[in-house]
Specification:
263 residues, alpha/beta, TIM Barrel, 8-stranded parallel β-barrel, two-stranded antiparallel ribbon
Length: 263
């Protein structure tokens, strides 16, 4: 059985998983739009969360803040991004997380993408990666590091030169893929041909049309992703699934059921 769950509030991710009949939870360790943290909100702290999640059979995933961009040419963004990503990885290890997800990042218009790939290599090479670091594809931007597969290929080639390369995996977001101009049918095989792996699926429907560049998630059946394509993604990846769709428990249960029916 494929483990499924949702992105939830960090206060009690175990209870959130239980309420959804889920086997995993993903959450932020702090403000996703800020540089403070990471902070473990769970009563009893990191050690208690690790022990209680293990006892409940709930896998934990940490999503790094959106503001991180280790590819950036701006020292005031790139250097703090590396430092904060290390803090996220360390905190994730303390709670026994299965991985840390981080967006691929981007450069400014007209900047040489090779600089971004080199910056990613330097970041990976300098990190202590105690839990898998999962790079997520993104939906928009003409100079993104992980929107199009050609860029993912170049990014993986750069990272592959690091001794830490085997600690870096891939998180496939279906909304981002659709909005980024990547057909879902057969996508997992195309990605595995580049990365050798797909470690986690962010199974989100897309509010907007194919190749729109818009990162706007929708509940399943209400958006514009190809249902047959998402079924192919789920079966081909055979990886844990996280939904990041709107709403609370009831909406998430409906979305998880919709996905399970496709399997």
């Amino acid at each position: 059985m494929i483990a499924m769950g949702a992105h939830v509030d960090a206060t009690d991710p175990i209870a959130e998983a239980t309420a959804r009949g889920a086997q995993l939870s993903q959450f932020f360790l702090g403000n996703p739009q800020g540089w403070k943290g990471p902070q473990v909100a769970y009563a009893g702290g990191a050690a208690a969360l690790r022990a209680d999640a293990a006892a409940a059979g709930v896998a934990l995933y940490v999503h790094a803040p959106y503001v991180l961009n280790v590819a950036s040419t701006n020292n005031r963004i790139r250097i703090p991004s590396r430092q904060h990503l290390q803090k996220q990885l360390t905190a994730a290890a303390e709670i026994g997380a299965a991985g840390v997800i981080v967006h691929g990042g981007h450069l400014g218009a007209g900047e040489d993408p090779e600089i971004g790939f080199t910056n990613w290599f330097k970041a990976v090479d300098g990190l202590d990666i105690a839990v898998p670091l999962l790079i997520e594809n993104t939906a928009g931007g003409s100079n993104a590091m992980a929107r199009h597969l050609e860029r993912v290929d170049r990014l993986w080639a750069a990272i592959g030169a690091s001794a830490n390369a085997d600690r870096v995996g891939f998180c496939l977001d279906t909304c981002h893929a659709h909005a980024g101009g990547n057909e879902l049918m057969g996508l997992v095989d195309r990605i595995k041909a580049i990365t050798g792996r797909v470690d986690l699926i962010h199974a989100n429907d897309s509010r907007d049309p194919f190749d729109s560049g818009a990162d706007r998630h929708a509940n399943w059946g209400a958006g514009q992703c190809d249902p047959e394509g998402i079924a192919d993604v789920l079966r081909s990846a055979d990886a844990p699934v996280v939904i990041e769709t709107p709403g609370g428990v009831d909406d998430h249960v409906k979305d998880l059921t919709w996905l399970a029916d496709r399997l």
